[in-house]
Amino acid sequence: MFSAPLFERANCAVKEERRSVGHKERRIANRLQLINWCLVAGGALALCAGLAVTTFTLEGLMTREVLTAPALAIAGLWLMRQCWGERPAFAMIAFSQMGCFVIFAAPMSYIGLGAGMPLQDTRFADLDRLLGLDWPAYFHFAMARPELLLYAKFFYAMILVPGVGVPVVLGLTRQYIRLQQFVMASTLALCVVIVVSSLLPAIGTYFEFGLPSETELFTANGYGGQARDIPMLRDGTLRALNLAKLGGILTFPSFHAAMAVLSIWSLWSIWWLRPALLMLNAGMLVSTPLVGGHYFVDVIAGVSVAALTIQASKGLTAVVVASPLAVSTQPKSEVTGSAARYSLGRHV
To answer: What is the pLDDT of residues 224-246, one digit of tens each?
Structure first.
């Protein structure tokens, strides 16, 4: 039997150890947060450069959507100074980082597609056939089952959930490192998708196969933007970009597919969310070709991009963890190496 004083000392030691490990995790998360702000700044510089060397112009700079992201960043920085505000602060700052980057990335995707590189629709359709995947058969299968169409549109719209849900859940559960890794991986994935889609542009499956994207029972909402805007970008008639009206026009790789994988990975440690994560994101993967007018190879490429950016975020985290600046200023005796390695090892 342990004596009461011995048990109390052991309990205090465990609490102190957890506080020390938590302190180090916050320091690492703050450094990752700084890296993510650098990525956001890089996106802003890329947009400025793109506008400088092309004839594109921006409109709608003072809309509510544009002003929300910096407002959340300011609120998050204020909350970070409050003793009770750490959790919502990390969530708000992460949401702000993603929002700011999307503000810069959306017009960059239009500028990239305005370069007028050769369309790759026929090649992507051939790759689908080479893999034994028949997109027209998939389309007719869905059209013959109207009860599935509503679910397809619902699951496709689930891309809106990770941008808000992941920061909130990871922020409130104090998984700050994983939260910043998710922001980093999402940002890098969007960069890759924009570059590749600009070099290998495609309008989409409805264009390639001559199938209707609008019927009495169904409208491919995710396909409308690329079908409307890409031809005008290529012939030079669309050069004034209104930030509040820009849509998703990226085809290969599919950013929907990338976000499905990233959201599963980011929240997988929360076991009770796993069934919902698998159901919602599997549904998004299945519905992406139909609602977004994507080829199946778009989805495969999007999953691959997510896998690469996850590894990139983990690699950058490992560099930050190994940096002397990330080491806690507290004496080593206060932190057990095994506990710290276990806690931080989950993220690298």
So the answer is: 888 889 999 999 999 999 888 88
Nearest to 107 by CA among 196, 229, 221: 229
Distance CA 308, CA 185 (A): 9
Pair of tokens at residue 184: 């980093």
Q: Rounded to whole angstroms, how far apart are CA atoms 188 and 309?
A: 6
Burial of 272 (0-12, 13-18, 19+ CB in 10 A): exposed
Do 100 and 69 form a contact (C-beta atoms < 8 A)? yes
Torsion of CA 52, 54, 60, 63, to 10 degrees: -60
Do the beta carbons of residue 143 and residue 218 sit within 8 Å?
yes
Domain layout of the chain by residue ranges: 20-345
**Predicted TM-score of the model (pTM):** 0.88
Closest CA to 156 of 236, 218, 86: 218
Q: Which residues of the chain have pLDDT under 50?
A: 1-2, 10-21, 328-336, 338-340, 342
Tell me which residue has tokens 């940002």.
187
- Name the nearest CA neighbour of 291 among 186, 214, 238: 214
Give which of 161, 180, 236 is closest to 34, Cα–Cα.
180
Pairing assessment for the beta strands 240-242 and 57-59 based on DSSP bridges = parallel
Enumerate residues 6+ apart whose C-beta is below 8 A from 149: 142, 143, 217, 218
Cα separation, 256 vs 152, in Å, equals 13
Could you tell me if 193 and 255 are in contact, meaning their C-beta atoms sit under 8 angstroms apart? yes
- C-alpha distances out from residue 249 to 102, 114, 231, 320, Å: 13, 11, 11, 35
